[in-house]
Amino acid sequence: MESEIVHAASISTRSSPPARGPLSRGTLAFWLLPTLLSGCAHDAVAEGEAIYERTCENCHGADGTAGIQVDGVAAADLTVVIPQFSDEDLATMITEGIGAMPAQDLQGREVDDVIAYLRATFGE
Predict the structure, then answer these.
(1) CATH fold of the domain at 44-122
(2) DSSP category for residue 100
(3) pTM of the model
(4) Residue pair 45/120 in contact by the 8 Å Cβ criterion
């Protein structure tokens, strides 16, 4: 009697082959991990303070109350002004200017950081 050889389809516990190429899990993790870790170390208030010191302090002063005159108009007292406006309003004032205050050359995260500093320092 001759034995029959039966060829069955191989059974695999994997639902698909392992990912290969530029978007494999290992490659993605390699590039994503440093990005996530650097994002965790970001201190918006500290970064905002550095931006405030180089961009705003000349007119508003370290304590926000300096009121330095620009074109005959005193800079706003930030301890009074900041609590009155939304973050969106502050961002518009910073990037577009208002009254004698010129538009500041800040974008994106820089604007968010300086607003975080303003809120932490001069009130919600």
Answers:
(1) Cytochrome Bc1 Complex; Chain D, domain 2 (1.10.760)
(2) T
(3) 0.66
(4) yes
